[in-house]
Amino acid sequence: MTTPTWGDPAGPLTSAEFRAATQAIMANIEQVIEGKSATVRLAVAVMLAEGHLLIEDVPGVGKTKLAKALARSIDCSVRRIQFTPDLLPSDVTGVSVYNQETRDFEFKPGAVFANLVVGDEINRASPKTQSALLECMEERQVTVDGTTYELQAPFMVVATQNPIEMEGTYPLPEAQRDRFTARIAMGYPDPRAELAMLAGQNDHDPLNDLRAVTDAATVRRLIETARAVHAADAVQQYAIALVTATREAPEIRLGASPRCTLQLMRTAKAVAALEGRDYVLPDDLQALAVPVLAHRIIPTADAQLNRRTTDAIVAEIVHRLPLPQARTNPYDTRDGRAPYESRGR
Amino acid sequence: MTGRRRLGLVAAGATLLAAAPLSAIFGSWTWIMLAMITLFLIEGAAVATRTFRFPTWAQGLSMGAALLLALTWIFPSGNEIIIPDPDTFAHFADLIRQAGEDTRAYGVPVPDRDGLHFVAVLGIGVVAIAVDLLTAVFRRPALAGLPMLAIYSIPVAVYPESVPAIPFVVGAAGFLWLLVADNVDRVRRFGRRFTGDGRDVDVWEPSPLAAAGRRIGVIGVLVAVVLPLGVPTVNGGLLARWTASSAGPGGAGGSGPGGRINLFASLSGQLNLSTTVPLLKVTTTEKEPFYMRFGVADVLTENGFGHQSPKGGALSDGLPDPRQLPASGNAAFDEYSATIEVTKDLQQNMAPLYTYPTGVKDLKGAWSYDPDQQVLFSGRNTTREQKYQITYLRARYTAAQLQQAEPLAANDPLRAYTATPGDPTVETEVARLTAGKNNDYAKVRAIYDWFSKENGFKYDLSAPSTGKASEIADFLTNRTGYCQQYAAAMAWMVRAAGIPARVAFGFTRGTPGGNGVFNISNRNAHAWTEVYFQGFGWVPFDATPTAGVTGSARSAWAPDVDRPAPVASSSTGAAVPGVDSSGDPGAANGANRPEPGTNTGSTTGPVAEETSWTGVWVAAGIALLIALLLVPALSRVMVRRRRHAVTAPAAPTVLSATGGDTITDITVTGVAGQAREDAHAAWDELIDSMVDFRVPVDPTETPRITAQRLVRDLSLAGEPAEAATLLGTAEERARYARQPLQGAELTAALRRIRSGMSVAASRRVRLRATLLPPSVLLSWRLGLAEWSTRAAERLTRLRDALTRFNPRRLLTRTR
């Protein structure tokens, strides 16, 4: 996927510059979201992987706050869309209006024309409106009235949704879910972080204090740097094995797509870069498997009846799948069984 | 075909195989034909009832009926029409009674007798029903081994000392077949076996789950082999043989099974023993007894002289009187009596006798007498530690009398004793020797006299002793041998001259102990020729030079050819005080000699040597065992050394680019490649060490996680923990990074982590890791499993290919 706006002349950063820039972003966000460094890191990694982020959790755990903090940390254009049932596709993409002066139709860009789009409660909008995001998320362009408009780079959609409250919501279609690189859950903060939150947010909202620590150009260079991370053959094979396993697992009706493979590897590179490595490890893939794969797969009716969450299914696949490497012992001495024999649950 | 019916057929086949040991009892194979017919009928009934889903009792009943019908058809009383009637059962009772008599009358192998066949078929049929029910109905094939064992116990009871091994192996194979068939059926009932990648697994392919079974099997076999060695009561064990190598004739002393004993092998075994073992003590009223005799070889084929199983009536029926028989009536007879005491070292089922016994007393067990062979034999008893009295008639002939003996008629049944394999060398020699001789005795003497020192014949115990015909013929050219060659060669030549002859086995006179006592040891084991003269019976001729044989004797009709007659009698007489050979008119040339000094004097020599050799053998065996046990440990050490050699830092080149300030493509140099190999070797070694120390290895873990788990689970701290992390990083970078970790002290790290694991492990695990490293055993097992899997796959392919030619397939297609 090549976008013309990506021809940045500045080139990649050195590892020190990369570390400084990313550390600054993460530290900035963690001023607001306390005790969630792993989540924050994943969010940043998705950004560096040119992906989109879906934050899914119960109300009140800071989904929107994370999205806004990420947006504020970067000095770039940020738009926020509050998805409501009556939101129209043209509100998202933009609309052509008749200009009296020029006597011509003039394109008024919608909310997606920004570097960072925060879509709140995305599942409250009708499928019609949700679908407006399909083109821009994947192709980073908007076509209105036959005219295609390029979006700015970087472009990232950070959406939130609430999995508990189903009334009046429209679940995301599979095509839409597949466009989100990762789905993360915030989770409740631990008591210490919650205490700190009480103290810190007593009188004012720290979100208001946030200053941008980087700009869009730097982010573009960061992204380019992360792309250069080396992924060895063994790692690529492992990624493919993971994705293939979701397609072949008996509990899964629909496995992960090739786009998913691509995004998994890209996110893994970003994670590796964030950790200061210039090579991807299978560990990175293992850590990313649940956030990147779980929201895309559809379990079989049996698995759903058994209350098997997709997270659990993916976690089990990761646990079961041997590394693509004949060096290690093919027999697991833990239970003395050959790898092809399924392990008990 | 359903599994149950297939199992039934397997059960029948297994029963037939398990009946194989009966072949040791029967002389011919008729019984197996009868057994096959019976099994076929029984199994047919079983399959039929199973097809119609009859209840279990009906299946058993139908098989019983099939057995009854089979017995009726094979052994009809003559009156019934297919269906057995009361007469039939009376006939069966008769057959059983007859079998009882036959078992007493016949030694093994028994001839084809209706009674014995009936009992055998009945037994096999009953066993077949039991095996079928246990296997196909109750699904307990292991229990079916018991009735099968019952068949095997029959030859064991008949041959108390040694049972032929091959029929047992065949029977055991049948049992194993049954077990395997049952288990395969059991697995099949679960459905198809296939691997995670969808490949069908052949039923014969071993499952890793079966490893425990294999292990138990190996241990069981080892215990079954090793344990009897340590139990002193079991004869014939390896240990017993070692310890007995200086104490007795061992198996060579005729402990072999009755019908199958190779008399020649036994004889050379006796003579070649390095020690002197007393076998018999004979007290006789005869002053100069001739040889004591127990067996005879009267069949001459390509394989040399062979021995027929003796046949004859029970001892209690009385013994023939040679004076009354026309065959030997012309000889003069003197009556004597003797007491024979057998030591524990002479264990055979043919009792030593002086010829023409007229009465045998106090011989324990069931013994029979073969009047043709003049052999006293038993099917199941041996002479071991027996003491018995005999009265016997000693035949006396003179050369003049024998010259009068008439030649044998052309159609006389005894002509069977003149058969030879036909060897031109022998025949020309015989023709040359007997040319111009006008009577049988003259011909025999011509041949007998030819075996003299002057003609280059030399006594030598080290001559080959296979007893083959070619070897006997060779003896006539190389002229070096001992009693068995002399006796066999002479018998052959006499046969070639058209006169019946055979080889007799027994003992020479032995060492006189005064008062008519003669002590006979294994040194006195001997073979000689017997020639048949019409009217005189079998007349002994001993062609072996007296010099070679302890206690040999010569007779008037067969004087010592190596010495001039008048001088010999006085010189040997003087040499042996207490034995007056000249006093006996019959013995012209007594040659009772004491045991050769070399043997009696230096008995301790060979014995000591023997024990020392035994010691060496035992030590070598133990050393070999230890070496075998150490093979895994050594193999592990070798592997480790090789890997350490790889991981030892050859050159301390550290690339400054490591860690990569700038993320750029760096070409992998030879040095980097080497570093990668080093890291892999170190990691392999670490994994093997983990296997050795029973730390779980998970193929789904990355090196980093494995290292972390090591540190956490083993509570490693300090240097070992650092070493684990270092190894994890090295392997991780070697596998996944552009630039591997270089210049790290991996060997030292390995050593540290190994010591760390060793500290964390229990003493048993530590010991095992050193002596019997699981990693080596595991790799062997994996190799074996892989090999067998491949073999099974190949077999499956072959079978599939063969199915293509299956005619059934063509039938299906046309349908």
Automatic annotation (TrEMBL), chain B:
InterPro entries: Bact_TGase-like (IPR052901), Papain-like_cys_pep_sf (IPR038765), TgpA-like_C (IPR025403), TgpA_N (IPR021878), Transglutaminase-like (IPR002931). The keyword Membrane applies. Residues 475-545 form the Transglutaminase-like domain. Residues 552-607 are annotated as: Disordered. It holds the Pfam family DUF4129. Keywords: Membrane, Transmembrane, Transmembrane helix. Coiled coil: none annotated. The chain crosses the membrane at residues 29-49, 56-75, 116-135, 142-159, 165-184, 216-234, 613-634. It comes from the Bacteria. PANTHER family: PROTEIN-GLUTAMINE GAMMA-GLUTAMYLTRANSFERASE. This is DUF3488 and transglutaminase-like domain-containing protein. It comes from Actinoplanes sandaracinus. The lineage of its organism: Bacteria, Bacillati, Actinomycetota, Actinomycetes, Micromonosporales.
